[in-house]
Amino acid sequence: MNIQASEAQTTVDTLVMSGISKSFGGVAALTDVSLDVRPGEIHALLGENGAGKSTLMNIATGTIRPDTGSMVLAGEELDNIDPREASRRGIAFVHQHPAVLADLTVLENLLVALPPAVFADAPSKEDFARSLLAKVNLRVHLADRVETLSVAQKHLLEIAKAIAVKPVLLVLDEPTAPLGEESVRLLFDLVRDFVSGGTSVVYITHRLAEVRELADRVTVLRDGRLRATAVVHEISDQELLSLIVGRKLDSTFPPKFRAVQDEAPNFVLERLSGPGFKDVSVTARRGEIIGVAGVVGNGQSDLLRALAGLTSFDGQVSINGGEVSARHLLREAAYLPADRLTEGLITRLTVRENAAVSALTRFRSGFLLNRKREIGMVADTLGSLSVKAASLEAPVASLSGGNQQKVMVGRALLSEPELVLADEPTQGVDVGARAEIYQILRDVSAAGIPVVVASSDAKELEGLCDTVIVMSRGHVVDVLRDDTLTEERMISAAVSSTTQTVRIDDSSILASRGAAGDWRARIRRFIQGDYAPAVLLVAVMVVLGAFIFAQNDRYLGEFNISAMLLLVSALGFIALGQTIALLTGGIDLSVGPLVGFLVVVGSFFILDESPGASILLGFAAMLGTSIVVGLVNGSLIRFVRFTAIAATLTVYIALQGMSFILRPTADGYINAEVSRLITTKIGPIPLAFIVLVAVVVGLEFALRRTRWGWRLRAAGSDEESARRVGVNVNRTIVLAYVATSMLTFLGAIMLMTQIGVGDPSQGVAYTLSSITAVVLGGTSLLGGRGTFVGTLFGSMLLVQVLNATVFLRLDQMWQYVLQGVLILAAAILYALSRSPRRRRAAVRK
């Protein structure tokens, strides 16, 4: 019943958008669109992929600014709001592609995205987070890194963030696409509860059944223009479909292929078992499509991954009469994963590159690729799928979800596969595109290529497939064909099964173990966490130290310990700065020349004969110079759009040149009293090293416990998601490079006391050394994860290796050999400990 319709005249609309237009690169995404959302109503927003639905809501929530138009929220005009301001005003957006940060934990994702006031009345942040996750039935450990969560779990986390702010306006963009039946029911109940409390909901979907069940009114967009707004019970499904696609759809599903009964099967699975499934057997003839049904997380995706050659299996797979191996399948099968952004697409590449990447041999002329042939074949294939993109060279990340899905389908067709595997092939895809994908899969199967489709939509499997196997807890509990192939039979078989669980690689299982205090889950989280590399470095240092001491007992003498720790102090401060740059996903090549340049600047002021005021001025000049350099680096990267390497390399060259201009030769001897003060020791421990440790502890606390640290890692983990949750990415990264340069200033003070003179040739080596120390400490070169503690131990290990070559009387060449071996070993160990395959193996034990 549409209660709101009769009350519209006496209440202020929650949201009014008028005359909204937006273009990207000259292509109109929205043209003069208006939308009004009433208090306490669920307003469905429909349209094909690329119709402008998500763009319109991104404008409403401040992620995108419109070219023209106005917005009013609860009677107050909104002007140039950003996501954080939208959140403060009570607007929450659950994105189709969750705005979660893979490198942060579940708890940290909540902390960085939600305003501090949300946690104010709770006994603790952890207790509030647990209660919030319980509301959406998300059973994960707060310390689990989000990269280990399934697609459905990431969506539930996104929903949890939205309901935490008790929004005035809640926008849900395809929220049920990856969810199982239980989670969908729970979501619907949550939506109804919010609406009963006065919240307005904009519900973006491609599923008309959901519109009928939930919505009061519906608005349809097509080609970026408003087509109609109507009360749901006053418009038919056929009228809605005509508005959405601009034409009449006769049938969503193509007619099923009539296979020859005595024809030999072209696809056979015999007692196939692997991680997450056991004893799967099924056959199909040419033209038949096999479906895989069941409640999400019961082995369907694991089966498809095995058939794609991504995991090992036991049993037999035969295609066209010949048995094939996992290695063969990895090369010849076309796999469309459910998580298209993480596994299906290379988001940094273009539409053309993503479509062509699996079919490069088809474009080859001799030893080279024929670009004309590539463009022609890709354009024809994507054109047949009606992919909407500004051009073939547009970034694939700029496409709507449905068009991204069609790019993956196009890539599968171009690769001429022996087997097609589609996991949730129509997830987030509009009605018209869905029919096109169904027809393509049917045509592929009719051409003799086996097709296997896994879907959480039983109606989809009923209409598309010829044989459906129903899986529960990794086992096949029913095989449906002909008259038995119905939605009711699939659901009944899945929910009434009494089979025992096969150990499935599912992060909810891992999380429940962790919540129960399972020690293996704790070890797993530690190994996958940021502090494992630091523990490994300590172990290596202890072993190396014991070996050197066994060869030379003067190694642990007071003089040697003091000397090493002084060297660590210089490298450590610079490496801490480099850590901040790498956490943002960047790098600072200029730290080496900067430290040398700062020493040269200091050599004009901090001299033996200089008065106190001159010395203070010298330190101020060094600090000011470092801040300016940091601002230049950050501005070049964020505002001039240089890459981090290009920007900092430019500054590297400039600083090195200025050093030699100021000091063509080494000159300007540093004040001895200043050097003596800075190198003061407490026993064998230099005071500077103690300061370094204190700075490390402070930075580590800030990284884990403050919004600065969460935002820093968020910007490095996923810039777009960070922006969506309200992080000011430009400011965060610019200030990060300023912090990098300021820590380099502290390293320059230590270097100045060690060399005692303004030498323009000093400092350059610290660029490579600092990067090495940070990488050894476990900080990712891709950004988002790392520790300052690990960087400290990485610096100590590097200095120890340098010292070892002296005590073991090795040639200087060994210094570089040992550093290279350490870096290679660290890279291999860290990659293995964090690999998804290793995580799956750990679960099965």
Question: Could you provide a short overview of the structure?
Answer:
With 845 residues, this protein is an alpha/beta fold.
Give an account of the 3D structure.
It is found in: Cell membrane. InterPro entries: AAA+_ATPase, ABC_carbohydrate_import_ATPase, ABC_transp_permease, ABC_transporter-like_ATP-bd, ABC_transporter-like_CS, P-loop_NTPase. The chain crosses the membrane at residues 531-549, 561-582, 589-607, 613-632, 639-662, 682-703, 733-757, 763-782, 789-808, 814-832. With 845 residues, this protein is α/β, with parallel strands linked by helices. It folds into three domains: 3-100 and 166-245, P-loop containing nucleotide triphosphate hydrolases (Rossmann fold, 3-Layer(aba) Sandwich); 267-499, Rossmann fold, CATH 3.40.50; 525-840, ABC transporter involved in vitamin B12 uptake, BtuC. A hairpin with a 2-residue loop joins strand 24 and strand 25 (685-686). Helix 22 packs across helix 32 and helix 27 packs across helix 28 (707-717). The longest helix has 27 residues, at 612-638. 50% of the residues are buried.
State the share of residues found in helices, binned by percent: 40-55%
N-to-C CA distance: 53 Å
Low-confidence residue ranges: 1-10, 503-517, 836-845
Strand order, biggest sheet? 6-7-8-3-9-10
Q: Strand-residue fraction?
A: 15-25%
- Name of the level-1 CATH class of the largest domain: Mainly Alpha
SSE-based structural type:
alpha/beta
